[in-house]
Amino acid sequence: MSSNYKFRNKENLHFVTFSVIRWIDVFTRRLYKDILVDSIKFCIANKGLEVYAWVIMSNHVHMIIGTKDKPLPGILRDMKRHTSKTLIKAINENTLESRREWMLWFFEREGKLNPNNEQYQFWQQGNYPIELYSNGVMDQKLDYVHHNPVTAGWVDEPEHYLYSSARDYAGGKGLIDVVLL
Q: Which 8-state DSSP code applies to residue 3?
C-alpha cells in the first residue's frame, strides 16, 4: 500500500473507503446492508470504534472514524474479515439471490489470486485512510459521505437515504449511533 494511505496520527479522525472486489454491486439488497450495519454496531460496542459519519453504497462504504484505545487498522481488519465471511454465507444461502452463482464465482476466483485468503475474497485490499487534519478537510469529507446517494440519484436529500448518517446530522436518528462532528 502506498505511504499516502496509512493510519498515521491515531488521535485524528480518518476518512476510509472500502470496496467490494471488482466493484460488484452487492449492497443492492437490504439483507446485505443490514449485515454490514450490525458489524459496525458490534465494533462500536466491543472494539472501541467511533463512527462520525458513514454511508453504504451499492459496492463500497465510506466512513469517518476514530478510536480512543485500539488501533484502527486492527478494528477495520477484523470488521472486514467478519463481514466478508458473513456476507458470503448469506449470499450462498439466499436462494432468492439471482446473482448468487456469479458473485460466488467472482469471490472465489479473486480469493485464489491472493494467498492470504482461505477461499474467497470479498473486499478489495486496503482502506485508503485519509487523515482529517483540519476542519475544512473534515467538512469536505462529511459532505462527500452524505451526498453520495444524492449524486448516485437514489434520493433527493441526503437524510432520505436510510443507510447513512445524514439523518443524524439533519436532527433525526439513523441506524448506527454516531458521534456528531
A: T
Instruction: Give the 3-state secondary structure of residue 57.
Output: coil
What backbone torsions phi and psi does residue 116 show, to the nearest 5 degrees? -75, -10
Nearest one of 32, 4, 27 to 126, comparing CA atoms? 4
Whole-number Å distance between alpha carbons of 101 and 141: 36
What's at 107, amino acid-wise?
F
Q: Is 153 left (phi over 0), alpha (psi -120 to 50) or beta?
A: left
E strand or H helix that includes residue 110: helix 100-113
Copy the grid coordinates of residue 61: 462504504
Going residue by residue through the chain, which has 181 residues, state the pLDDT in tens, using 9 for 90 and above: 444 556 666 668 999 999 999 999 999 999 999 999 999 999 999 999 999 999 999 999 999 999 988 889 999 999 999 999 999 999 999 999 999 999 999 999 999 988 887 799 999 988 789 999 899 999 999 999 999 999 999 999 999 999 999 999 999 999 999 999 8
- HSE-CB at 137 with a 13 A cutoff on CA atoms is 10
pTM here? 0.92
